Amino acid sequence: MPSRKFADGEVVMGRWPGSVLYYEVTVTGYNDVSHFYTVKYKDGTELELKESDIRSQSSFRYRKSQSSSSSPSRRSSSRSRSRSPGRPAKGRRRSSSHSREHKDDKKKTIQETNFALLVLVSVCLFFKLSENNTSRYNGEPDSTERNDTSHIISEQKLKPDLEMERVLEQYSLRPRKEEKKKEEIYSEKKIFETIKAVEKVPSKTKELEFGGRIGTFMLIFFLPTTVFYLLLMCKQDDPSFMNFPPLPALESLWETRVFGIFLLWFFLQALFYLLPIGKVVEGLPLPNGRKLQYRINGFYAFVLTAAAIGILLYFQCELHYLYDHFMHFAVSAAAFSMVLSIYLYIRSLKAPEEDLAPGGNSGYLVYDFFTGHELNPRIGSFDLKYFCELRPGLIGWVVINLAMLLAEMKIHNQSMPSLSMILVNSFQLLYVVDALWNEEAILTTMDITHDGFGFMLAFGDLVWVPFVYSLQAYYLVGHPTPISWPVAAAITILNCIGYYIFRSANSQKNNFRRNPADPKLAYLKFIPTATGKGLLVTGWWGFVRHPNYLGDIIMALAWSLPCGFSHILPYFYVIYFICLLVHREARDEHHCKQKYGLAWERYCQRVPYRIFPYIY
Q1: Is 490 helix (H, G, I), strand (E, B) or coil?
Q2: Half-sphere exposure (CA, 13 Å, Cβ side) for 113?
Q3: Is the pLDDT of residue 481 over 80?
Q4: 3-state secondary structure (DSSP) of residue 147
Q5: Contact 27, 10 (CB under 8 A)
Q6: Of the candidates 212, 227, 136, the residue with the CA atom closest to the CA atom of residue 573
Q7: Compositional bias (Basic residues) at which positions (predicted)?
Q8: Which of 79, 229, 471, 587 is the most buried (most CB within 10 A)?
Q9: Distance of CA 474 to CAs 222, 365, 488, 597, Å?
Q10: CA dihedral of 236, 239, 241, 242, whole degrees rounded to 10
Q11: CA distance 109 to 121
Q12: Sign of the alpha-carbon dihedral angle for 424, 426, 431, 436
């Protein structure tokens, strides 16, 4: 078993990962298993380094003096001096030619040194630009960190302006003695090897999610089947899971007129998206450093949609047509999402490497088709993923709920909708309006920054959200559930608690990501990381690691309670939501551990509970 060379508290020189530069560090720990030293830089950054990347200060200085004394020019001149006493005449005869050769060699060495210095400064500038193009981020990982390095910290960049100035001062291009230049730089070959290592970016996704190729292949069929099964169950008098519904004829599942209405709805929302209203903001930096621009007008699109629905109702258009043909609409949306996914995958094959999603570039057709091969597919300035994320499905969810409310009134001959239906519609309307009002916050989510746009998001946005999230309203049409006012008040309070946790936690996170130096956030404490970003340890993010997920689950429960306890079907959404968030939480934990390393371990020690305080 190798012995430990450096002790805790010892001040040594540590090589900054990905560079050839050494900085003064303090040894703070040692891992007997991995044989990595934990070191701390003067700016507070902690990294794990191999023993070969650490040198003692005395040895470092000694090697510098050694390299200067044994430089090529000194060795050649010392050899010439040692020969001159024994052969004075010959030395005099060759003195002029030797002097010319020595000057030529010196001139050549200076030129080569200046070239190497220019390359080194270019490397430093490259690192600096890369660092400026990252954002401060808490909770969810960025879309770019998926590397295989020998270090625990995955983002390897040089330090900011102060270190840049030191490098420029240390390696200025003013003429110096050859010994000094040899002391300060590495060989040209070493520098080019560093550049090559920095520019090399992993191009393939190595860690496959959702069960890999087999799992994603099964999900392509399982997700639509689940949606159709749930809708068929809701139409039964006894919607218990043991009472399997009869399968309808395939030809009865398709209606061309319904598909036309769905296309009209989709392109109407696209038209609203293209209207020149609302502000234009920049998203987070992409892996190539670019920032895409997004028009924030989702709330305006919702208002225009509400006005259009109001006009239809004024002219006595029967909106409950949605209820009568609900399965047809679901099939039409599923067919459209499949066609859209095929288009997205075909166009991604011609996309440049830098535009591909870090999680959907495995090289396996089925896996990349499901997760999304291209990160931000656009037609001109029209961002397909961003548009589908909020517009057709989310606004469509509210329209479907309204149609269910009107259908309940017509089928049961009611002058007013039931209290249960009012609660479901109100709670979910609040959720949608909140998402559209805070539309800019979605630009920092993993759906936008990390996940590609493929079948998973296309089907989720266009089918799963509007047709599964409206399950409670669809259930109440055929299974009325009366509730008392005190019960309604208790459910309302529960929903308000969940919404408050959800909104305040997301606001803290998004504001901190956008501008950590905001004076309004001075009360928040965070753990600095080697990536230059911080992990919040106060506020909601110091309570549990994913407080927004906690608020989501509480609201999902409040949406299901108005349906009573006769059947478990209305609570499918709660069960699904818990499973989804636990999966997302596990994925976030894995990515954050890779990205933040020791800082994430410190954060987990500080905040031990993941979603449910004192439970999980």
Answers
A1: helix
A2: 21
A3: yes
A4: coil
A5: yes
A6: 227
A7: 76-97
A8: 471
A9: 21, 36, 19, 46
A10: -70
A11: 18
A12: positive
Give me the architecture of the 10-58 domain, per CATH. Answer: Roll (2.30)
DSSP string of 10-71?
-EEEEEPTTSS-EEEEEEEEE-TTT-EEEEEETTS-EEEEEGGGEEEHHHHHHHHHHHHHT-
Residue 115: the pLDDT is: 46
Q: In whole angstroms, what is the distance from residue 249 CA to residue 185 CA?
A: 77
Q: Which residues contact 442 (CB under 8 A, 6 or more apart)?
A: 386, 389, 390, 435, 448
Domain locations along the chain: 10-58, 210-482, 483-615
Query: What single letter denotes the amino acid at residue 569?
Result: L
Relative orientation angle of helices 72-83 and 95-132, to the nearest 10 degrees: 170
Q: What is the pLDDT of residues 560-604, one digit of tens each?
A: 999 998 888 889 878 887 887 777 777 777 777 777 788 888 888
Single-letter code of the amino acid located at 210 = F
Written as six digits, the tokens of 559 are 């949406």
AA letter at 418: S
Position with higher pLDDT, 85 vs 14: 14
Residue 198 corresponds to which tokens in the numbers above? 């920095």
Q: What is the pLDDT of residues 257-289, one digit of tens each?
A: 999 999 999 999 999 999 999 999 988 887 777
In angstroms, the CA 313 to CA 318 distance is 7
Say if residue 311 is exposed, middle or buried (CB neighbours under 10 Å; 0-12, 13-18, 19+): exposed
